[in-house]
Write a structure and sequence with these properties.
Elements: H1 2-27, E1 44-45, E2 51-52, H2 55-58, E3 112-117, E4 120-124, E5 142-146, E6 151-155, E7 164-168, E8 174-178
Antiparallel strand pairs: 1-2, 3-4, 4-5, 5-6, 7-8
């Protein structure tokens, strides 16, 4: 009977210890790392709750309990390609010099550019007095530029795209939203 009681107490003690370890593991999670401590590559849990490898993440305010191995220390490798081994950045290797060549005129200034096919780009400008005119006599704000033929096709838009933003949806649709007043 005494052995069973001791085994029971041992089981209770082990359960409490296991719960304590689970609680410590959960408490040691970096806020924005899916409830886990930071990995080796981004070892420091920053004051903002993000794992990182920068001086900002690993310095003052770093949460060591949520950092890799419980220490706020930056990750480095012996073969780090960005430094020369003494902590100083390596110089950028010399590359062949390029050149620019003007091959055409886009017609409108480029506030936004989107490559919509491999040979055509959409150029979006804000309301400007651009030289190309639409059939209505108004200055063009947008153009489609053919990269092969170096030709433009002017596009009519309803609003001034100044202060707008845009992007591509997963289905390939391009959107441009925001902007200023109507034409």
């Amino acid at each position: 009977m005494a052995i069973i009681r001791k085994l029971g107490l041992l089981l209770v003690a082990a359960s409490v210890l296991a719960l304590n370890l689970v609680a410590q593991t959960e408490a040691a999670a970096c806020k924005y790392n899916n409830g886990k401590p930071c990995p080796l590559e981004t070892p420091c849990c920053s004051p903002h709750g993000h794992c990182g490898n920068s001086l900002l993440a690993c310095d003052v305010g770093c949460d060591a309990s949520a950092s890799f191995a419980g220490v706020c220390k930056r990750y480095t490798t012996a073969t780090d390609t960005l430094t020369s081994g003494n902590g100083k950045p390596r110089p950028v290797p010399s590359l062949p010099k390029g050149a620019f060549k003007v091959v055409g005129n886009s017609g409108v200034a480029a506030q936004h550019i989107a490559l919509v096919t491999p040979t055509r780009m959409l150029i979006i400008d804000k309301a400007e007095a651009n030289p190309p005119k639409l059939p209505s006599g108004s200055s063009a704000y947008n153009a489609e530029y053919d990269l092969v033929k170096n030709e433009i096709r002017l596009l009519e838009v309803k609003t001034n795209t100044f202060c707008s933003g845009g992007g591509f949806l997963p289905n390939g649709t391009m959107i441009s939203a925001g902007g200023a007043e109507l034409r």
